[in-house]
């Protein structure tokens, strides 16, 4: 079994060895329901789709994903097990990937448990199942984006609270980068192209086009390259820390 | 054959501090090297570099012929490492933890179960295999760490304070374990328990302020003590003889000290044994001798002399 797979198994089992997994799943499901039925107006919309469910997911992920990912590296540093991990015969990339994939698989499990939502829509009407599937895939990719950011930030510190707060702030910036909140910061001095680049980073822009049923491969590439970038940065940070001590 | 562990001109700087400063040494199969030094001398830092956790500013390291920096994975496969404080995943049980290590080390089939059984029995983990590591006592945690380091039967063992936190019986067991393995492996242990060096090490290196200040067998180091070959002489209770002038008058004597219990410690000026001379003087003068013995020189005297000397100069 490769090092990545061994790390993946240990990490995933680690979530379920403590109450973290169950607390997260329950809260995720309850909040999803609250957002969908109350804030999203699921019934009032009178449409057989999961828009009400997916629309609020960026905001739910914004806090819940950093809570899942903050421990990935910070805890290893706190307990000293990072010294053990890095002296075992596995590549750094393998360790980064194994940890990320375990956390991602865990969010996938939580996301999969929202299936009653889909059943509900199916019972009440005839939803476009293709759009629903695209929504789920988009949601998982977006969760991966939040998670890669958090994993990278978690490698910087041994304090999980710092990792959480910083990760939430960065995730927030990526979530709303298409909104005036972020763009006004650049608008005064930056050229138009920079503005366009920053606004193209927005999670919400890419995610909403996916859940609207507009399947554009560029949205998927966006999330995939975002994940790759942050995981690469994650490995670089762990490596730099070896030099700095 | 090249040494199992070769370290050349290793240096590590933390900001303005040279934690390890141009350290070089080799360890061969069959050697147990005791790595001594005051806290903060650079023992752990050196070990962390050899095991790939820290990267050095300078120097090279080879483990079983594999360069630690160029061919890290091959080098790491040859090493069993117990980090300082024996860290382990607290929410795992020793059972899950050792199986995780076995997976990573690529142990499979009968060899895997053989090694697991051997290590668990030899280190005495049977009773705690299903308890989470965070609930274990300090001694058991240390033993889980040792089991982890030994699991793949590595050629090179690097143990950072392997007996710290163990009770005297457990210390004795771990030392026995190290001695049993010594013939087939190259072992480096760091410690500040000097009796441990005398008990298990074939060679000792003393490091202070990042530099090697002494390197030799424990006996050679003991010989460097100013008290090496000094003679302790104690007279029977109630004896009123004034022996000091006679002792001081002998040739080859540096000084005569008085110990707390009324014994005299005669310190030689050179390396020549003086016990015969002291004995003859005592017999000729007819002193009532209660005790007369040679001190071989103690490692902690040497340790203190060498390391405090260094610090004052620095």
Layout: helices, strands, pairs:
The complex is a heterodimer of chains A (245) and B (314).
Chain A: H1 3-17, H2 20-39, H3 42-45, H4 51-55, H5 57-69, H6 71-79, H7 81-87, H8 92-112, H9 115-124, H10 129-154, H11 160-175, H12 180-187, H13 192-200, H14 203-211, H15 217-244
Chain B: E1 5-14, E2 17-27, E3 32-36, H1 43-50, E4 58-63, E5 66-67, H2 72-78, E6 79-82, H3 94-104, H4 109-123, H5 138-150, E7 156-160, H6 168-181, E8 186-190, H7 194-200, E9 203-208, E10 211-216, H8 218-223, E11 230-235, H9 244-249, E12 253-258, E13 264-268, H10 275-285, E14 289-295, H11 299-313
Keywords:
heterodimer, A: 245 residues, B: 314 residues, alpha/beta, Rossmann fold, Alpha-Beta Plaits, six-stranded mixed sheet, four-stranded antiparallel sheet
Question: Can you offer a commentary on this structure?
Answer:
The complex is a heterodimer of chains A (245) and B (314). Chain A has one domain (3-177, 205-244). Helices cover 82% and strands 0% of the residues of chain A. Chain A contains 15 helices and no strands. Chain A has helices spanning 3-17, 20-39, 42-45, 51-55, 57-69, 71-79, 81-87, 92-112, 115-124, 129-154, 160-175, 180-187, 192-200, 203-211, 217-244. Chain B has two domains: 5-223, Rossmann fold, CATH 3.40.50.300; 230-295, Alpha-Beta Plaits, CATH 3.30.70. Chain B is built from eleven helices and 14 strands. Chain B has helices at residues 43-50, 72-78, 94-104, 109-123, 138-150, 168-181, 194-200, 218-223, 244-249, 275-285, 299-313, and strands at 5-14, 17-27, 32-36, 58-63, 66-67, 79-82, 156-160, 186-190, 203-208, 211-216, 230-235, 253-258, 264-268, 289-295. Chain A binds chain B through residues 1, 3, 6-7, 9-10, 13-14, 17-18, 79-84, 86-91, 242-243, 245, and chain B through 12, 14, 19, 45, 48, 51-55, 73-74, 76-77, 79, 81, 83-85, 87-92, 96, 100-101, 103-106, 148.
